[in-house]
Amino acid sequence: MATTVSGDGCVRLRIADVQSETADCVSLVFDVPSDHQDRFRYAAGQYLTLRVTVAGVEHRRCYSMSSSPALAEPLRITVKRDPGGVVSNWLNDTVVAGAEIHAEAPQGRFVLDSSTHDIVAFAGGSGITPVFSLLRTALASTGRRVRLFYANRSADSVIFDAPLRRLVDEYGDRLTVHHHLDSDRGVVTPAALTRFLAGTDESEYFVCGPTLFMDAVEAALRELSVPGGRVHLERFVAAVPADTAPSAGAEVTEEVTIELDRRTTAAQYRSGNTLLQTARMAGLKAPSSCETGSCGTCIAQVTEGAARMLNNNALTDEEVADGWVLTCQAMPTTKSVRVVYE
Ligand SMILES: Cc1cc2nc3c(=O)[nH]c(=O)nc-3n(C[C@H](O)[C@H](O)[C@H](O)COP(=O)(O)OP(=O)(O)OC[C@H]3O[C@@H](n4cnc5c(N)ncnc54)[C@H](O)[C@@H]3O)c2cc1C
Fold first, then answer.
1. CATH architecture of the domain with range 118-234
2. Which CATH number is 11-103 given?
3. How many whole angstroms from 36 Cα to the centroid of ligand 1?
4. Lowest-pLDDT range, 78-82, 136-140, 212-216, 267-271?
5. Which residue from 323, 331, 286 is spatially nearest to 307, judged by alpha carbons?
6. In what residue span(s) does the FAD-binding FR-type domain sit (predicted)?
7. Distance, CA 332 to ligand 1 centroid (Å)?
8. Is the confidence at residue 28, as pLDDT, over 90?
9. Chain segment 163-204, per-residue pLDDT in tens
10. What is the pLDDT of residue 14?
11. To test ligand 1's pocket by mutation, which of 63, 129, 294 has the most ligand atoms within 8 angstroms of CB?
């Protein structure tokens, strides 16, 4: 019998296997029904959005694939417990083989492009998940060399430790893994990053991990004047903007006009809300997913007025110049703003 797609684009996927990775991390392997193989085709580095109900409350969370599409493996995500977090702990504690979870089709722009440059990857903690998929895909399907800087608190929190060792044995000098353990050397320092980066010019850089780790890597890459186009970032949480106060010269916004699904709605604006929140307050089902400014699902174009983004890991400078915004991160800055969803 055909599997149905719910109104929000989710499909019910059966869990084929649950694999314990560390004391606080599991991988969930999905069975994708034959009639949805195309829908769940993905690129290394992409993620699924899960819809789960915990204690009667519905939540959506994004989890990157740790499997590689180049190796014909079943779809797999890897979830690390977030202390105090609702969904990550629920997935670690309760999900068993045979359970079913709603998932949207894969999304994300943290992917390999057609470049032939060597790859330099930085992963911190659960940030290894998309990086593990990317590096195995690059090793299996290209001749690119990969260097990984992998930071963890301590040896027992290293996810995919044994598989990484096996890959080093298999690929020899095409793969170098540099482990950094805070328990041995304290947190990652700019000097350690600069040392690791020596001789990596002309590479493509992939970075995923906790905010402070990502900030330190970004700063080290800036210091080396690496062009922004060769740096790929995946943030699991929204970066906290340095300044959330209205920018100088910003007007008080009164009205936001939203064009969505060929309907035009005049929405009241409440100070401090993003354009996405404004659309929701007006009763509109505006597209969204990660809500951290990473995935690009909530993209829309500001065709009148202006808005500034708190965080943008998805749009290029050219797209921003053309008025495109991530509505989950966009704060209007003019008296009236017109937002058009494609
Ligand atoms: C594109 C993308 C890909 C991702 N991929 C992965 C992945 O591969 N693996 C992975 O493990 N994670 C991944 N994440 C992160 C994941 O989506 C979740 O954000 C993470 O699992 C935490 O969710 P949670 O429900 O457990 O925590 P939440 O319940 O959302 O809580 C998050 C944190 O906020 C704190 N908190 C919650 N409510 C409050 C409150 N009222 N006051 C103060 N503090 C509070 C919690 O204590 C916790 O520390 C990804 C995120 C994105 C955006």
1. 3-Layer(aba) Sandwich (3.40)
2. 2.40.30.10
3. 28
4. 267-271
5. 331
6. 8-113
7. 27
8. yes
9. 999 999 999 999 999 999 999 999 999 999 999 999 888 899
10. 98
11. 63
DSSP 248-305: TTPPPP-EEEEEETTEEEEEEP-TT--HHHHHHHTT-----SSSSS-S-TTEEEEEES
Contact 101, 52 (CB under 8 A): yes
β-pair partners for 205:
120, 231
At 73, the amino acid letter reads E
Please say whether the beta carbons of 309 and 330 come within 8 A.
yes
| CA neighbor of 128 nearest in space, from 206, 48, 50 | 206
Domain spans of the chain?
Answer: 11-103, 118-234, 255-340
Residues 279-307 pLDDT 10s: 998 999 898 887 888 778 899 999 999 99
Kindly state the average pLDDT of the residues 24-47: 96
Calculate how far, in angstroms, residue 89's C-alpha sits from the geometric centre of ligand 1.
10
